[in-house]
Amino acid sequence: MSEEKALFEVGFTISYEDVSVTQVQLRELKAAQHSAPAMQKYGKFKVWLHYANLKRWQKQGHHFHYLSGENADHCTCGLVLHENGTSDQEIAVVISKNVQKKLDGIELEQIQMVRGHVGLPSLKGETVALIINFNYNDELNDYLWTVICQQCGDYQVEIKNMDAKSFVKTHNKICGPVIFEKKGK
Fold it and tell me: Domain residue spans in the chain?
């Protein structure tokens, strides 16, 4: 983060965008690809692939910086972190220094350090626990996931997706009320 503006500086805000992807949208994008002139087929395929991947990541519960905009990072859940926010946007709240210490050694993206993520795959409610990374394990022929709690700093590394989702559910139930009650949710 040496060349980037530090997340703790003034001016970072968050907003939310609709990132829901339906099967109907994916079928329409695939149909547009097939009916496009030959020179446009690859471009249409890339558009379809972008949304198909987004839907898959959301289903997996994976929160990460999947898209960049003008001075903004976009998470798969719809949270947008703005470097030079406007007054109509919420001020970005970062995980506490105590939690950051507990997560030392876990590689976090800027957007994963910001509070206020939306639950995946539902795209509803707020979540304090995030699935943040994965590695493919050849021996298991499966992806293993890293998951963190932004409230208490607990984490697990390289666990199966169903276990990561269970971690998220448990921490939202135990640690979430601390945050959600403060916000009146």
Answer: 13-183
Mean pLDDT within 58-67: 96
Mean pLDDT of 141-165: 97
Both structure tokens of 104: 């030392």
| 76 contact partners, CB below 8 Å, separation of at least 6 | 19, 54, 57, 58, 62, 63, 64, 66, 120
**Signed CA dihedral, 25, 130, 65, 118: sign only:** positive
Q: Within 10 A of 165 (CB to CB), how many other CB atoms are there?
A: 19
Q: How far apart are CA 80 and CA 44, in angstroms?
A: 25
- Which residue, among 47, 104, 116, 105, has the nearest Cα to 75 in the 3D structure? 116
Determine contact, residues 28/40, Cβ cutoff 8 Å: no
Q: Which two tokens stand for residue 123?
A: 């795209």
In this predicted structure, what is the pLDDT of residue 7? 59
pTM score of the predicted model: 0.87
| Residue 15 confidence (pLDDT) above 90 | yes
The pLDDT assigned to 179 comes to 58
Assign 147 to helix, strand or coil: strand
Average pLDDT over residues 75-81: 97
- DSSP-derived pairing of the beta strands 124-126 and 13-16: unpaired
